[in-house]
Write a structure and sequence with these properties.
- The chain has 384 residues and is mainly alpha-helical.
- It folds into 2 domains: 52 residues, no CATH class; 268 residues, ABC transporter involved in vitamin B12 uptake, BtuC (Orthogonal Bundle).
- Helix content is 73%, strand content 0%.
- It has 18 helices and no strands.
- Helix 2 packs across helix 3, helix 12 runs antiparallel to helix 15 and helix 16 packs across helix 17.
């Protein structure tokens, strides 16, 4: 075991995933069975990895996505029921700059929605990408472990009681934390287990059952809710950015999740090859499982608390990026945050302008776009 760890050290960018692949499948990497990888084998695997994903290529992907996000941000500020040029919209961000009415519209309505949309989309895409690694299932998404169900159940109780919106948000976050604690308690043995057995099936089944229970509670609450509150409840359940005035909670959660998740990307590449391979390479599998689960769950909880249950972002965005650019988590996680944030900003822009002056829930737009896109991806490249 010591020789394997010494010869299979996790190398710098674009090398460790191929190295883990070599340790897991000796024939394809040209490594004879029954012996640890030699330095020549490691070098050969490293050169193969460099052709697949390099730091320059990852930076180019991030730069393109960041440019698209910047364009969408300007469009979100300038397009709406009161049209204005991009220069007027950007000038309104400067104190005492531009027309007072336009500045008030931008700063009070459009800027918070744009910032909240990006933060929520980035949180959901990051959570989806992490859970797809943890569960080793490309169809996993942020709500599969019941986080949204717990948030919805508690938020609906607050809405029916007529609580203020800040209490509704607090109740939603508390419900999400309760759901996280339930899954954590019921699947603690699988999460903390440090052997090579796959813990994802038990964790997935636990989350699905808890999500079903929350779904039954939400249905019961909807049947008891007064008619005057049903519209607001439906908008919240489908995901809505209307009325968001303080996106800083979502941004704080995004920065915290990124700081915790991104440094673990090289270990996630190894974990994708299986728990046995990860253990052989010295990866602390039990701690990494817990880290992924907590970060993904809390990221989804922050997004749901801010904007309700916006669907398909955490499923479609990581899957599309994986098909387009590969499964290197060092590239994928930042790209997923950029693409997810831009996707929700674009969906919110469509929701505000499609039937203006009326507005649609942003979750409706993500579903209307996400369903055909995901079906197209499945038909274009069948899953193996």
């Amino acid at each position: 075991m010591t020789d394997v760890r010494r010869n299979c050290r996790i190398p710098p960018f674009n090398k460790d995933d191929e190295l883990a692949y070599a340790c897991n499948t000796p024939k394809r990497a040209g490594i004879a069975r029954g012996r640890p990888p030699r330095s020549a084998d490691v070098s050969r695997v490293m050169h193969g990895a460099a052709r697949r994903m390099s730091a320059a290529r990852a930076a180019a992907i991030w730069a393109v996505l960041a440019a698209v996000v910047a364009v969408l941000f300007v469009a979100s500020l300038s397009i709406g029921s009161v049209p204005m040029s991009p220069w007027q919209a950007l000038g309104s961000l400067v104190p005492h700059g531009g027309d007072a009415l336009l500045a008030d519209i931008v700063r009070t309505l459009r800027l918070p929605r744009a910032l909240a949309g990006f933060a929520c989309g980035a949180l959901l895409a990051l959570a989806g990408a992490l859970l797809q690694v943890l569960l080793r299932n490309p169809l996993a998404e942020p709500y599969v472990l019941g986080v949204s169900g717990g948030a919805a159940g508690f938020a609906l109780v607050a809405m029916i009681a007529g609580a203020a919106w800040w209490l509704v948000d607090a109740a939603a976050f508390a419900g999400a934390l309760v759901s996280v604690a339930l899954v954590l308690g019921l699947a603690r043995r699988e999460l903390w287990r440090g052997d090579s057995r796959d813990a994802s099936p038990r964790l997935l089944l636990t989350g699905v059952v808890i999500a079903a229970g929350w779904g039954a509670l939400v249905t019961l609450l909807l049947s008891l809710a007064p008619d005057a509150r049903l519209r607001g409840i439906i908008f919240w359940l489908t995901g809505d950015l209307n009325g968001v005035t303080a996106p800083w909670f979502a941004w704080g959660a995004l920065l915290l999740a990124a700081c915790v998740a991104l440094p673990a990307a090289p270990q996630l590449n190894v974990l994708l090859r299986g728990d046995a391979t990860a253990l052989a390479l010295g990866v602390p599998v039990a701690r990494l499982r817990m880290r992924i689960y907590l970060v993904a769950s809390l990221a989804a909880a922050a997004a749901v608390t801010t904007a309700g249950t916006i669907g398909f972002v955490g499923l479609v965005v990581p899957h599309a990026l994986r098909l387009a650019f590969g499964n290197d988590q060092r590239m994928l996680l930042p790209a997923a945050m950029l693409a997810g944030g831009g996707g929700v900003m674009a969906a919110d822009l469509l929701a505000r302008t499609a039937i203006a002056p009326a507005q649609l829930p942003v979750g409706v737009m993500t579903a209307l776009v996400g369903v055909p896109v995901f079906l197209w991806m499945l038909l274009r490249r069948p899953m193996r």
